[in-house]
């Protein structure tokens, strides 16, 4: 089964990050991931955040590139799960 990986809201509830820029991918396409493994690093004007895999599976596709500006809810990639 394939699931989309959306950008979750990051940070404290009162100061949650809503937008950022993809600094670099930490997981290669085809990588087998466990839930919580690092997918990519997101930078904002205030901080850098690591976005984790929402569940275990294989990273089938990247939908955003390094340097892309993204918002909460944007699809980062596709995860193939069992």
Report on the architecture of this protein:
With 82 residues, this protein is mainly beta. It has one domain: OB fold (Dihydrolipoamide Acetyltransferase, E2P) (Beta Barrel). Helices cover 0% and strands 49% of the residues. The chain contains no helices and 8 strands. It is globular. The relative contact order is 0.36.
The whole-number mean of residue pLDDT values reads 92
CATH architecture tag: Beta Barrel
Name of the CATH first level: Mainly Beta
**Span of the ends, CA to CA:** 6 Å
State the low-pLDDT regions, or none.
none
Secondary structure elements and pairings:
Blueprint (H helix, E strand, L loop, with lengths): L1 E5 L12 E7 L6 E2 L4 E6 L4 E5 L4 E6 L6 E3 L3 E6 L2
Antiparallel strand pairs: 1-8, 2-4, 2-7, 3-6, 4-5, 6-8
């Amino acid at each position: 089964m394939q699931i989309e990986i959306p950008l979750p809201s990051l940070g404290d509830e009162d100061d949650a990050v809503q937008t950022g820029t993809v600094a670099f991918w930490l997981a290669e396409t085809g990588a087998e991931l466990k839930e919580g493994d690092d997918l990519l690093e997101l930078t904002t004007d205030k901080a850098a955040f690591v976005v984790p895999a929402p569940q275990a599976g294989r990273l089938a596709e990247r939908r955003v590139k390094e340097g892309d500006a993204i918002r909460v809810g944007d699809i980062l990639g596709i995860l193939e799960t069992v």
